[in-house]
Design brief:
8-stranded mixed beta sheet; globular; 390 residues; 14 strands; alpha/beta; 6-stranded mixed beta sheet
Length: 390
């Protein structure tokens, strides 16, 4: 069976075609700078060299069509069993489901909670409906992995009727990534699940931490929306609701203005005043920029705080795993996040921590393993789509 996994961004599009017989990626492609004067199209078949082309890509439909035009030179489009999407959030819907009109309506109902993410996915799904109308469209919601979080961990302290009426509760995100990372930890370092506790740190432009007990998520840092928890590149993270109300009154902000402030002007960018990209942050720190250093330290502190919370929730951990753009590639951040945790059994090896490759970065005498892993969210989506089709 061949399953195409679509991974849309606001100005980019990536895809992978899996052959589920042996779970090989037989084709992958990416389109960057959609809508700019010069787009970048990258394509690669298994066993062949990567091709890169620069040309205008005016819209999303053309971006998808460009990759499909390359794909069908080798793989007939009729062989694609389904198009899978790493969908984010929908009211009353989770798990892996066909993207029916009812599911699309449920996604639109919760769109204000994750406007950037959901809008992009809704658009991508509609594009696939046009360009591959006969291919089933399936979504694996990021909330699915967190479905077993207990009520005492997902409820907020508001009147219970609002939870019943509107579904206001913690849902959690980055589910496919946390699930893959926890499974990979088990495959590499432990015999089986019973008794294995993993703290998964998905740290990128969007970031969250997850407590995984025996392969099941029991708590995670993001809440009802992807705006809560850790600082993100430009999204706010945890914020006292009364501080927000006070700010809205003082600045006379509308709901739309406030939403824009929280998702595009806050987070690491908001504190640094320069960028939400940690490559820029570290470069500015090296030049003596105090605000960049403050943003770096704040992010690291909040990661450390959530790791500490989940050490308590899990009654200890067997492994702390770092993944995604920052988690896998920024060794300074990993060191800062785990600084001063030796009495909790967490000790990094300075030399090993310099890597960006998969492996253990903790010292030999560390009671808790610390690992760097490359996540594979697309693989998780493809596996769940295959199960649904079967």
């Amino acid at each position: 069976m061949k399953i195409l996994i679509a991974n849309p961004g606001s100005t980019s599009y990536k895809c992978k075609l899996f052959d589920t017989t042996n779970w090989e990626v037989i084709f992958q492609a990416g389109v960057e700078r959609i809508g700019d004067a010069q787009g970048i199209i990258t394509c690669q078949f298994k066993g062949r060299d990567k091709t890169v082309e620069n040309r205008p890509v005016p819209d999303y439909i053309q971006a998808v069509n460009l990759t499909l035009d390359v794909l069908k030179r080798t793989v007939p489009l009729k062989d694609i069993a389904a198009a899978g999407f790493k969908t984010v959030l929908a009211k009353g819907v989770t798990g892996c489901v066909r993207l029916t009109p009812d599911v699309i309506s449920a996604m639109k109902e919760f769109e204000p909670l994750a406007p950037v993410h959901t809008r992009v996915y809704l658009h991508a799904i509609s594009v696939f409906e046009k360009v591959l109308p006969s291919v089933p469209r399936v979504g694996l919601f990021e909330t699915a992995f967190h479905a077993a979080i207990p009520p005492e961990a997902y409820l907020y302290g508001i009147p219970y009727g609002y939870f019943e009426k509107y579904g206001i509760r913690k849902y959690g995100f980055h589910g496919a990534s946390h699930r893959y990372v926890a499974r990979r930890v088990k495959e590499l370092y432990f015999d089986d699940w019973p008794g294995v506790n993993v703290i998964s740190c998905h740290l990128g432009g969007s970031a969250s931490v997850c407590a995984v007990k025996n392969g099941v998520s029991v708590d995670t840092s993001m809440g009802m929306s992807p705006q809560s928890g850790l600082l993100n590149a430009k999204r706010v993270g945890d914020l006292d609701p009364f501080a927000l109300l006070y700010l809205m009154e003082k600045e006379n902000l509308s709901i739309a203005q406030t939403r824009d402030l929280l998702i595009s002007k806050s987070g690491v960018f908001g504190i640094s005043g320069k960028s939400g990209d940690f490559r820029d942050i570290e470069k500015a720190m090296d030049s003596g920029d105090a605000r960049a250093e403050l943003a770096f330290k704040t992010f690291a502190y909040i990661v450390r705080r959530y790791i500490g919370e989940y050490l308590a929730v899990l009654n200890g951990a067997d492994c702390i795993a770092f993944t995604a753009g920052i988690g896998q590639n920024q060794h300074r951040l990993r060191r800062a996040a785990l600084e001063g945790m030796d009495k909790l059994g967490v000790v990094l090896d300075g030399e090993k921590n310099g890597t960006t490759k998969e492996g253990i970065i903790s010292a030999d005498h560390s009671k808790i393993l610390v690992a760097v892993l490359a996540t594979d969210e697309e693989r998780i989506v493809a596996e769940e789509v295959e199960k649904l089709l079967a």
